[in-house]
Amino acid sequence: MTIIMTRTTDKYIVEPLRLFISISLCCLLFVSSLPIVSAKDSNLNLDPLRPADSSSPRDTLRGFLTDTSQYIDDFRQDTRSEKTFQAYRRASQTLDFSNTPEGDSWFVRNRQMALLQELLARIELPADNQIPGDPEVADGTITEWTIPNTSITITKLTQGPRTGQFLFSADTVQQLEGLYRQARHLPYLPGATVGIYEELVSADTWIMSQEQQLRERLKQVGTSSPRSTLEGFLDSANRAYVLITEANAALQDRPPTKTRQEAREIEKKAAHLLQLASDTLDLSQVPKALRHDVSIETVLQLKEIFDRMLLPPIDSVPNSQMIAAARQSDSGLPSKTLAPYRWRLPITQIEIVEIQEGEKQGQFLFSPATVKQVSDVYHKIKDLPYRHEQFGGIELEYLSPGLSPGFYEQYATASGYLIPQAHFMGRLVNGLPDWFKTTLGGQMVWQWSGLFLCVLLIILTTYIVNKYLHLLAKHTTSPLHDWLNVIAPIIILFFVMMIDMFINYNLNFTGNLHAIVRTGITSVVVVLLAWVVFTLFKAIAETIIATPRLREQSSEAALLRIGARVFGFLVAVWIIIDGIRELGADLIPLLAGLGIGGLAVALAAQSTIANFIGGLILLANKPVRVGDFCRYGEDPSPDWMRIGTIEEINWISTRIRGIDRTVTTIPNAEFSNMHIVNLTKRDQRLMRIRLQLRYETTVEQLRYILIKIRELLLGHPMVTPDPARVRFLGYADYSKDIEIFCYLQCREQSEFLAIQEDVLLRIEDIIKGAGSGFAFPSQTAYLSRDSGLDIKRREEAESEVGHRRHTGKLPFPEFDEEEREQLEDILDYPPKGSPGYEPRS
After folding, report:
1. How many CB atoms lie within 10 A of CB 84?
2. Tally of CA atoms within 13 A in the half-sphere of 810 that contains its CB
3. Which helix (H) or strand (E) holds 118?
4. Backbone phi, then psi, for 292, in 5-degree steps?
5. Exposed, middle or buried, 62 (CB in 10 Å: 0-12/13-18/19+)?
6. What is the pLDDT of residue 743?
7. From CA 647, how far away is CA 640, in angstroms rounded?
8. pTM score, two decimals?
């Protein structure tokens, strides 16, 4: 869309009389309205955030010019203040940014306002009485107004919070950059602001400066439409070319006008721009291992193609509005039938296609087919001349229509650097004889020579490292032997990766040879990495097994070895599969073959795999360990047949030695599903006894016995005081029953029986001392004369209980805390006279 401007050659004729009358009338009007003006000024001070007056096209246009003049003057005089910002804000409110990409950004708004100011500075605007004002728009018939001989339109908003206001239309604001490119060669009007666009966008201290720095580092190339993708690609590639050309020229000057460090910084910026350009390519069908180099090579070759052809008219390249209109016309079709939007560069196979799935969904990128064909297309047209740089036609509509002659050839023949003179290798290559720079098979002789030396170094290094580390490993034992086996592939892997970096950044192969070299080296790296991981798992397992806490031949050592090898193998296989995927190989046949083979193995070795997994479960959960005494299973066989000590847990079965000294072997799959009681892990043993006293035992005797047994349990050092219960349960058929419930501080059975024996003997002494006895669990008729109970001891027991009752020390239901503390752990154990007896101090 072009702007047609007419310029009058008439001079302004100022009649002295007419001027005098006009000035006089203005002065009188000002004096008569001075209070009103003062009130407006007062309101303005009270409301510094008042919006721009956009009630008519005249107010909008004049308000924009007035406010922009204020902030431009303040900007140039470096006297910016709050009033400057308010003028800037009011000027921005006269533009409709609804169709402008990123129109909510200060950066974009500032740029569009500067572009509009540049256009208005070149247009002779009509007089105020020719621009619709409030009286003309009062009847509602005027909804838009276009500046004569231009396409700049001021439109009345019909919806939203600013309904009824007149703003520079959304289409006008969106097209300002293209309009400016068409009009920038025109002269400025007398007295107009000159060069403000370039001055504002390059300023370091203006509103947009910080955002501009962020955008340079973070903003990606716009890919919201084929037009934005094409323009973003051209702009990024041309800016990179300019930076590289200037840096190379500066280093070749005598003396150099830039240091090598400065050139390397410029190289980083250029590489970033080329990466932005490569973001417009759909590289989904390029192997990940090759994407970086392929993307740069494709960008440069595609740019060479564009530089040899006339770019299509900018308005023929679809933008977001054109795509939306096309979609609206197809809105009657089911969504599933809508194909991705495609745009093809005229007379070429170069396509920009909409991405419909994945993380780049909705973006427009050069299609995978285009990426694949670019190299062939370039070689077909590389002998054609470049188009004229100053075509003077439709290229002016583009943001960056410049040329980058020889960009790809410079990259392909250099030593892998965008600015070769900034690096040692680049200077070295430039100093080689000319015959080293002759082309052979698409690459130069020095590149072939470097590749041969790199392969030779890899072979020699692998041979030397394996030979000497293998000899050293023969004279060492595990685990040092295993760690030497890890070191060998690590050294080789490190060396191969260094060679890979050298080839990639210095030899800089292109085309098919680059793909072959990268694929070969990446395959070697993947295999070495898998080898390192597998041997590392083995070395770690052997190191753990070698610790004193883990016996060499224990079941855990065996399972640890097996587990380390299995996990190491699985991780190595995963690394290899992932490496194959990185190289772009089709994994479906491979995975299908692995699935069928795995199914066959699983069916043939189902029980073995189940036992192995059961062994891993036993090792991981550790319900029992080697040496533990346990009870297993819930079958009706006697307990002594299901109790034993774990002797071994291997990768197939578990062996248990029973208490009858027999050995039982149980498959791991079965044993891991059994009910297992680990008796070794008991921290205490339960003692639960029921005493059956004779019915002749009186209540006081019973109280005495309860007191003494409780004292016994509290005082015994091998009885846990809490809980330690002694309770009178009730009356049985032939006895008065007392239950003793306590825990003994022991684990082993033999120790438990010894402590229990001591406690029972002391209890029997207490019962005899109380003058009572045990009931006979029978109905035998006694023919002998019953001696009866000991009257004296009964009286003593009853007397003590009576004393306790009188003193308030009767321990029912419990001893008081003070007496309980005094009674705890006061008895001797083992008892006096035993071999282990030690008198208390």
Report:
1. 18
2. 14
3. helix 106-120
4. -60, -55
5. middle
6. 92
7. 17
8. 0.55
- 813: exposed, middle or buried (C-beta count within 10 Å: 0-12, 13-18, 19+)? exposed
Which residues lie below 8 Å from residue 788, measured CB to CB, with a gap of 6+? 696
Residue 81 exposure: Cα atoms within 13 Å on the Cβ side:
6
Could you give the CA distance from residue 523 to residue 582 in angstroms, rounded to a whole number?
10
CA proximity to 725, closest of 736, 714, 733: 714
Domains and CATH numbers, the chain: 43-217 (no CATH), 220-324+339-431 (no CATH), 443-604 (no CATH), 608-678 (2.30.30.60), 685-780+787-823 (3.30.70.100)
Sign of the C-alpha dihedral, residues 568, 457, 501, 584?
negative
How far apart CA 31 and CA 727 sit, in angstroms, is 113
Query: Per-residue pLDDT tens for 692-744?
Result: 998 888 888 998 999 999 989 988 989 988 888 899 999 988 899 999 999 99
> Crossing angle, helix 480-502 and helix 511-545, to 10 degrees?
160
d(CA 585, CA 577): 10
| Residue 692 to residue 740: CA distance in whole angstroms | 11
Q: How far is CA 328 from each of CA 171, 336, 454, 529, 593, rounded to the nearest angstrom?
A: 18, 15, 59, 54, 48
Tokens describing residue 679: 């008796």
Please report, for residues 280, 296, 525, 660, the alpha-carbon distance to residue 515 in angstroms, rounded to integers and kept in the order given.
22, 14, 15, 71
Amino acid identity of residue 18, one-letter, is R
Strands (E) located in 408-562: 439-440, 443-444
Q: Which amino acid is residue 682, in one-letter code?
A: R
The pLDDT-based confidence of 430 (bands split at 50, 70, 90) is confident
> So what's the pLDDT on residue 602?
58
